[in-house]
Amino acid sequence: MARANSRKNNPQANMALQEHFREFKNRVIKSAVATIIGGIAGFFLYMPFIEAIKEPLDEVNRQQGRDAVLNYANVQSSFSLMVTVSLYIGLVLAAPVWLYQLWAFITPALYKKEKRYALGFICSAVPMFIIGIITAWICLPATVLALTAFNPTGTANYINAEVYISFVVKFMVSFALSFVIPVILVGLNLMGILSGRTILKAWRWVVVFVATIAAMAAPGTDVMTMFYLAAPLLLFFFIAIAICLVNDKRRARKNAKLAQGLEKEDLTRSTTPEELEQLGRIETRE
After folding, report:
1. HSE-CB of 134 using CA atoms within 13 angstroms
2. What is the pLDDT of residue 280?
3. Of 83, 102, 80, 88, the residue nearest 31 (C-alpha)
4. Which of 7, 155, 192, 233 pairs with 128 at a CA distance of 20 to 30 A?
5. What is the pTM of this model?
C-alpha cells in the first residue's frame, strides 16, 4: 500500500509544518552521522595534514637557516587540536552528504526554473571553491616565507600550533570564498534580482570592499598576500559583470519582442525563409 504522502500521491510534496520539522531533523541527523564518520577518517589524515601545512616552515628553515617550528602550548593542546582538526576534515569529507541533504530539503519548494538556477549555481560554485583552495595552497609557502623574512638575524619562530592552523584555514577559506562571490553575482543576475549595470556602477565600492577583505585575510602587513587575494577576485568580478551585461541585453531583446505581442514560443522559433525574404525586401526599399 502506497504511503499517503508519497510523491505519486503528492506530486507537489505538500507537507504540514510538523512534517517539515521532522524531515529537517532527519536530514540534520544524517549529515551529523556522515560528519562523525568523516571525523573518524580525519584522525588518520591528521598527521599527513600537519606534515603538509608544516612544509612551508621547513622551507623557511632550509632557505633562511633558522628555526621555524610549531609549538604546543600545554599538555592537552596537541590532543584537543587533533580532535578539532579531525572534525574539520570530517566536515569536508562529508560535504557531498550534507550538500545533498540540503539540496533534497529545499528542492521540493522550488519551481523547475529555480531548480535549474540552483543546480547551475552548485555546479559552478563548487569548482570555483576548489580553484580558490588550490590557489591558496600554491600561495601559502610564499606567504609564510615572506612573513618570516622580517625576523632579525639569530632569532627563531616558535609558532603556536593552534594559531598557525587557524591562519592556514582562514587563509584558504578566504581565497575560496573570493572565487565564489562572482558566481553569486551572476546567479542573482540570472534570477533578475540584480542587473549588470547596477553592479558596474558600484565597481569603486567593490574595489574598496575587496581590498578591505584582502587586508583582513592577509596576516600582518603582507602586501603580496593582499595582491594574491584581491587580484583573482577582481578579475572574476569583472568577468561576472561582462556576463551580467550580456544577459541583460538578451533579456531586454526578449522583453521587447514580448511587448510587440509575440508569444514566448515565438522567441525560440527559427526564422522562416519567407520571413527572411520579407526582411530583405524591407531593407531594399529603405
Report:
1. 6
2. 54
3. 102
4. 192
5. 0.67
